[in-house]
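Today's session is about reading a structure prediction critically. Students often jump straight to the picture, but the first step is always the sequence itself: look for stretches that repeat, for charged clusters, for runs of hydrophobic residues. Only then move on to the predicted structure, which in these notes is written as discrete structure tokens rather than atom positions. Here is the chain we will use throughout the hour.
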Amino acid sequence: MSNRTLKTSAPRKSDVPPGYVADMSKGPMLRYEASLPRLPSVEPHLTPAEFATTKAAVDAFVVSDQAKVLQERLQARAADPERANWLAEWWNEAAYMGYRDPVVVFVSYYYVHVDDRTRPSQARRAAQLLVKTQLLEPEKVRGAPLAMKSYEWLFHTSRIPKKPSDTAKAYPFTNNHVVFTRKNKCFKVPLADESGQELSAAELEVQIERIIRMAGSEKAPAVGALTSENRDVWTDAREALLAASPKNGATLEEIESAMVVVCLDDYSPVTREQASWACWVGDGRNRFYDKHQVIVFENGKSGFLGEHSCMDGTPTLRMNEFMLASLAANKVDLGAPRTAATASSLALPTELTFELDAKTRANIAQAEKAFDALVGEHDMEVLHYEGYGKEWIKTQKASPDAWAQLVKQLAFHKMFDRPGVCYESAQTRKYQLGRTEVIRAASKESKAWAEAMLDPTQTDEHRAALFRKAVSRHLQYAAWAADGQGVDRHLFGLKKCLEDGEPVPALYADPAFSRTNHWELSTSQLSSPFFDGWGYGEVVPDGYGLSYSIGDGYIRWTITSLKRRTAELKHYLAEAATETRAMMENAAKAAAKKEHSKL
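Below is the predicted structure for this chain, in token form.
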């Protein structure tokens, strides 16, 4: 989102997809009205009568004086030279900083790293992951650079709990240290020695081995558990922690200003589900959820937990991928090899301790109880489907992402006999401070195809034709969203332009508005050969978190929910993926047979 998304100048031909004709006699706001699709993302979820009501509400809003006033206010905000992005402040507040539910489960997201085949120890794996190499170059799409401002929140930053809305703090890079957690205890390790020379991997490995020994076998009171609480509860608990002793403020600042937190867990996950659970939530104790965290397990497996408030998944994806790819290709200068003298000049890691009073100890106990209850309400399934991946999908001249989204729609139809209200995330980082827009993945076309797949009287040739139409429609929606032309953020912005005492437009009270913003399927794709899983939680109580990755020879879905038949959805996803391939192959055979008969 940027000023450009609300421009009023005459459109260039390239501004809109083919088939959209500008009628400038209607004025800037309504110039495309005649050629717009008719509520493409609402109609699949409504009865004909409901659709007629919603259409009337939309038509009335579009021509109303109030809509004109709100649009003018929004354009004025976008034109403000002091503001790079009209949406950023509003969205960060509404979606993140003002959100009061616990970040863990509801906001945080995780990655599971592909195993290092050399099977390093926990200490060696953690040390290698921390060795810095070169600065990241700006990302580009088709040669155009993407906004990199959010990268400033990768290191030396922390979310800070406050009422009524959290803040985020970025610390100077002179705070050149890492904080390790082990047995709920925190340890500070500078990343450079007294002369300013950065530590080698061997030196970091020595320090981490020391931390593991220093932590011992007894666990400390889990101050980090407080960060898993409701944000208002954590705000109060933080104030109580600070009031208990002046020392606690200094300790907190050491943690919050660290480059990153590295969690050294006393656990060895094996299966994808075990590793995913451990990276997503852990035990709720040996964590500090207000910061990005690298997680390393006793068997050398590793992962990452992202603090979501100041940046979305693509920057952290790139950072993790850069780190892992560099290690895999032996492109990281790990420094001098370890010798008997490696540890001689290194000061011992500093344990960061708290002085806890009875009130804070009670707050910790309550946080642990609340965490265990919340996590216990959830379940997770990982489907690593190896029937095919993007290489085979491309032979069908189809978009792998659109394919995966349609498979998911078919699976939902199989389970609930209707389309799922679906949010797919599209990045808008082609604009300054751009974050995301919604791809509304359920369309009339996807509904028609899914219904044909479930109708035994339909031919595979007919189903394939409907599938192609649904893929094309999905790609059109995705292109609009990435270009900042989606409907959701714009409607959000118009509503935010209301002034005190002004009535909310009837459009926002229409039942279809709330129904089609109730994201039963919260979906997002991040694909990397260096990840063995990733995911996040559901965004509505009766919905599913449905992250996915598309590899050369697989599609992997991670499904989370409040125990809403999650294993059944996993089954239907696998079934739908297999049936979609069979349908396309059968249709191709039928078409080839017809061609042959003409010869």
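Discussion point for the tutorial: The chain is about 40% helix and 15% strand.
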